[in-house]
Specification:
The structure is a single chain. By secondary structure, this protein is an all-beta fold. Helices cover about 0% and strands about 50% of the residues. It is built from no helices and eleven strands. The chain has strands at about 5, 10, 20-25, 35-40, 45-50, 60, 70-75, 80-85, 90-100, 105, 110.
Amino acid sequence: QGHLVESGGASVQPGDSLRLSCVGAGFTFSDAAFSWYRQAPGKEREHVATIYSTETLKEYSYSAKGRFTISRDNRRSTVYLQMTDLKPEDTGVYYCHRRNDDTWGQGTQVTVSS
């Protein structure tokens, strides 16, 4: 139940920064845990980061650690993914996922190339 909408994707150059947003509706946002996934062309969807209802609990993939930061603003019903020092291998469609009820957004495209 409910839905998620991602935004913020763009075409950027290596080393640039980008912030993705995921707005949730139709459920109690503050009770939910969220993850960001991404899928590059020809590859399987992979986990990037997770944030739990307790904001201090976060998890990152190996590639995301040190460069990406997941956060949330319950007042705005929004989950963010701040990405810095972007690399070509970060290219893909980024999806927001609500863990509680296995809800996915439509995704937002991130392209990193020179």
